[in-house]
TrEMBL record, chains A, B:
It comes from Vineibacter terrae. InterPro entries: CoA-transferase_III_domain, CoA-Trfase_fam_III, CoA-Trfase_III_dom3_sf, CoA-Trfase_III_dom_1_sf. It comes from the Bacteria. This is CoA transferase. PANTHER family: SUCCINATE--HYDROXYMETHYLGLUTARATE COA-TRANSFERASE. Keywords: Transferase. Pfam families: CoA_transf_3.
Amino acid sequence: MPDMTDRQAFSGLTVLDFSQGVAGPHATTLLALHGADVIKIEPLEGDWGRGLGKIEGDHCAHSVAFNRGKRSLALDLKAPDAIAAVNKIAAKAAVVVESFRPGVITRLGFGYEAIKKINPSVIYCSVSGFGQTGPYSKRPTVDGLIQAFSGMMVMNRLPDGTPWRQGMIAVDVTTGLYTFQALSTAILRQFRFGEGCHIDSSLMRAAAAWQGAKLMEWVHTEGNPQPLYMPAGSYKTSNGYIMLSAMRPHHFRKMFELIGRPDVAADPDLQTHENRIKNAPKIVKALNETMPARTTEEWIALLQPNEVFCERVSNYEDYLAHPHVKETGAVDWIKQDGFASMPIANIAGLPPAREDPARHHAPHVGEHSRAILGELGYSAAEIDAMVAKKAIVVPSLPARAAE
Amino acid sequence: MPDMTDRQAFSGLTVLDFSQGVAGPHATTLLALHGADVIKIEPLEGDWGRGLGKIEGDHCAHSVAFNRGKRSLALDLKAPDAIAAVNKIAAKAAVVVESFRPGVITRLGFGYEAIKKINPSVIYCSVSGFGQTGPYSKRPTVDGLIQAFSGMMVMNRLPDGTPWRQGMIAVDVTTGLYTFQALSTAILRQFRFGEGCHIDSSLMRAAAAWQGAKLMEWVHTEGNPQPLYMPAGSYKTSNGYIMLSAMRPHHFRKMFELIGRPDVAADPDLQTHENRIKNAPKIVKALNETMPARTTEEWIALLQPNEVFCERVSNYEDYLAHPHVKETGAVDWIKQDGFASMPIANIAGLPPAREDPARHHAPHVGEHSRAILGELGYSAAEIDAMVAKKAIVVPSLPARAAE
């Protein structure tokens, strides 16, 4: 139930969320963490995003991350009883989000025009791969394909030019952020001006917007963007990798003097930004020769106090254990049903997870079906009848069903 | 000047923006594109973010991308006249954003506590590398170092395990999105409840939040996350690369039948998700053998109609020229002073750039100094005196100065 007393941005707002997977759910979990009552409509078997990677019950790590704070109503969108219940929610929702392939939601009867008739100021957001219009609009796609399509894999390419896909669903996650950007501003317009709208969000647009400066740079440099500075990369040490970055001109000289390579610091071929870019292989060669001689920690102890920009290359375990991360409360550890304690990366502008751990619960399939239908005025007998007809799913555990 | 008639989310709001570089400016350019009057406070020599890569006058591609829609007031923050002018703006601003190293803005006299005294409901946002507190808070950093620190380079690592930095300032850009998330919700709280706040946004937190599901997955799999499905990667064709993705189980079989490798489709070692992950090298080997036999376009013509997920690996030139991108208006081309026409990746929820090209102008250093000071009540003679004292900069072109 929405809590109107907590003074969060979206307190008191209902969100009808048909979205599945990652992009849409990421946007709506941010709405939920900022106080909205997000009702997650799932098919009887659950959101397909619950099966990404290692599974624990009806969740995986991704479905926990992108469904925190929501309530789940699992139903068959073709069953008349379920359709009637969804329409009751649609009539009062501030926001409706869906991520079916373009055209599908209209056939199901919950398209923008249909909802607008019963809810004139609704904010309706469609999230898709290629957008609602154009020749590719109905083309099936996934994160990796948009990494390929958008130029992201070429941007992230290896030294030999091989295009490289990121080891995470970067476009999906980023689409969640751009979709949230569209939703939060639309909600403010709804508050200020009483207006709704139809938002056409897509993986394609989000990937391009995220790379917007790179697109401009590509045009401006006629396809030959230069590194912003040199060196800026990771180098092997005796026990790992160190990232070195000589952003300001004086950093270059200082770095090479400190690591015992005054010959490079003074090399006449490397005294200007342009020359360092042009003769980058000389710099890379010198660092590859020199950096393996000491540990990462020894180099950092030498370079950092002299304001040469450097950092240990960490994995997630290092990050989670880092004293600065711990001391600043950047990560909280929250219990999720069926999982060991899970790390929550706290987000700027949101209360830290430790202050409201219950809000970070990601629902089981149909966990709140009974509660939500009860709020809509359905009696327990009516709900039981819907379960018997397989129009809805409620959790099998009596303790939950009694909620 | 703010336009109160356009009914954008932030119409009528003034933003006092001290931020430089990319992360803060990215957030405030989104505020400007959604209607806010963002006054960019720059040092006399301009934001250092104007010098990232190839330079054109007082801009580079990055500074254009992340300063669209703002007005520039260039001044010396230590000159008494400039300080007085900034305080006038601070008193009426809905939002103040700064990205100095923690502690600096307080010494300059514009810290949260100082602004709050003259503007009790102000939203004050600090953007930094490691946040405002903790042992690393004053450590200098840049995008690449946070890619290293946050685990991002390990997530993005090469097949041999080498950590790999993305070819763009991914953390800076993403921090802009998380900062915008914090600002837009804080503005809604300011509207609804009359409350201000101090937001502590950082590159470190944004990088971790963006990888939040990966952090959970790392813990859940004890540091050994598996690919979400197999295959999902790019393969050489006779004229480029193709990205292949067998998300659903039946895609795997269909893909290998269609490319003429029924032996792989039927391989008893590859019939379950678990076995395909375990025996991934067999799949990769088969694709490396087979895919170079035809062009990318031939493969796509064969696979796509059968709903096997595949996509050409494009660069930015391909993206910008793509018929679907053109037909959907995903990119508009806008003239920027000093540049050829520049591509604007249109963002979901915002009017397309072609409908309001003037809003996509990124200001020159001090371009609006005269206009802004005039609105604050300064006479032309007073402004001239400030210029003579080097307290402010106005553009040297008479046409602009007359604005």
